[in-house]
Amino acid sequence: MAKRTNVDVFSYLTDTLILIVISFLPFKEAAKTSVLSKRWRNLWRGTKKIEFDQSIFVKQESEESSQESRKTQKMIFLDFCKHWAGTYPQRSANEFRLALSNPQENDTDTQLLIRFAVDRGVKALDLDFSRPTCDENQVGLFELPPFVYEHSGLESLALFSCNFRVSLLNKFLALKSISLGGVKLTNSCVKELVSNCPLLESLSLKNCSDLGCIHISSTRLRNLVIEKCSDLQNGIVVDVPNLRVFKYSGLLVPFAIEYMKGLVEADFDFGCETEFGEYGNLLYELLGDVWSARVLTVCSYMLQVIPSAEEYPSLKPPFEGVQHLTLKTALNMHEFHGISFFLNNCPHLETLTIDLVPARIFQERRTDLAIDEHEFMSSFGLVIVYKCVRKSLKVVEINGFKGQMNEVVVINYLLFHGLVLDTLSIVLSTEKDPDGADMESSYRKKAQDLLKFKRASESLRILIN
Q: What order of strands is seen across the sheet that includes strand 255-257?
């Protein structure tokens, strides 16, 4: 038998091939390759994925650094960026990201770095000028330099706290993805933006204000993300028949969603809501509009409010295509009826992910449903067992497990009735106790106690991480 030896495969590759591999790594990870050997020391400097992030150099206020020291650190950061750009050995690059607060204070340097990216013909440009520290003056937003609009080969553009001219975006003939955040943006601007970019497939709006409403109509758009945008009192209209991914987080507003037969993923998070409200029917109609989704994510607010819908507990049409359901929940008893609603209306569910998160619990929930009669709380001889639990549910993932009673009750139900359950994966919470003591051993012991529970599936594996 031939003797096995450890072979360094990379030693057989040319520098050009190694650089291609390095360019797939995040910028910070690419830098770490410089310590591997003398040969690798400077290879990473030719990476095609460039990221200059101020937060790596500048300590936040919470770290007890003074304003003067942060300014010094910021100058060191900019000196590093300029030196790195000035010695960059490649004629072209693929991606460029600059995260810098208050760029107006360093306008010349900021323009120089953006010019560097444009001159290298980057396909993806990401400029994040948000302010991470509260002591910096709230000045006007940085204006996207005019020369950027001449970069017709740009395919992806992300601008945060950076003003731009919508009318000039039609020069980006190849633009497929736009992400905007931290700016004032009217609905008419959004319409113009979508119409001016004929190849646009992905649109993300985060923390934008002054919208009033959002009305998006497109036959090409595939991905739409609306995150924590304010001033949407007039609602959201989505007329995008070929949309594949739709994600929304923020306050509950009226939705008008046209027929979307190809929707793959829908994600709704109304965690910003502070009142229970009479919104069950509004949420019910929203869910009915995304009936074709195969991956669905819902929040605690949805779980608590949906039982107040007039048509509860049935959804028409049901989520026949949903295979993966994610619940962002505290697994509080006031969420149990909402959890049942989704189990009942996802008859072919294969994967259930439960992300345990702090949630605002509305004790005044306006339904006639008795919590103490819920199937999770009743004796197992008198419960409703949903079709998906009996016939299709194969994987259950619990993230943030602490072993609290409400968590154990739900897991017990799934173990006891999950006839085809193949895997129960438990990721322990990293939360410490009020005194700062580590709780991992306590959480792990409670997770291991689940191994003693009676289970319906003989092939079930319980993994604890």
A: 214-217, 236-239, 255-257
Q: Is 0.70 surpassed by the pTM of this model?
A: yes
| Cα separation values, 294 from 106, 156, 193, 246, Å | 47, 27, 29, 12
With CA atoms as reference, report the closest residue to 297 among 242, 354, 371: 354
Q: State whether residue 254 is helix, strand or coil.
A: coil
- Using omega within 30 degrees of 0 as the cis cutoff, is the peptide bond preceding 434 cis? no
The DSSP-derived string for 256-269 is EE---TT--EEEEE
Mark 29-40 as b/e (b = at least 16 C-beta within 10 Å).
ebbebeeeeeeb
Residue 325: alpha-carbon gap to chain centroid = 15
Distance CA 220, CA 400 (A): 38
- Cβ atoms 328, 355 nearer than 8 A: yes
User: 367, 337 in Cβ contact below 8 A?
Assistant: yes
**Environment class of 170 (CB within 10 Å of its CB; exposed 0-12, middle 13-18, buried 19+):** middle
Q: Which long-range contacts (CB under 8 A, 24 or more apart) does 21-30 make?
A: 22/46, 22/47, 23/47, 23/48, 23/49, 23/94, 24/49, 25/49, 26/51, 27/51, 27/52, 27/53, 27/97, 28/53, 28/56
Q: Give the pLDDT confidence of 177-217 residue by residue, as tens digits.
A: 999 999 999 999 999 999 888 899 999 999 999 999 999 99
- Whether omega for the bond prior to residue 317 falls within 30 degrees of 0, making it cis, is yes
Tokens representing residue 56 in the block: 């790596």
Contact 256, 234 (CB under 8 A): no
CA distance 133 to 45: 30
Other C-beta atoms within 10 Å of 123: how many?
17
Q: What would the two tokens of residue 136 be?
A: 């910096």
How many Cβ atoms sit within 10 Å of the Cβ of residue 77? 21
Within 8 A by CB and 6+ apart from 212, the residues are 186, 187, 231, 232, 233, 234
pLDDT tens digits along 273-300: 888 888 999 999 999 999 999 999 999 9
DSSP state of 461: E
Tokens 């994040």 belong to 128
Give one DSSP letter per residue of 390-423, joined into a string. Answer: HHT--EEEEEEE---HHHHHHHHHHHHH-TT--E
DSSP one-letter string for 326-386: EEEE---GGGHHHHHHHHHH-TT--EEEEEE------TT------GGGSTTTS-GGG----
Q: Which among 294, 415, 391, 396 has a CA at the least distance from the CA of 352?
A: 396
> Residues 75, 76, 81, CA angle at the centre, nearest 5°?
95
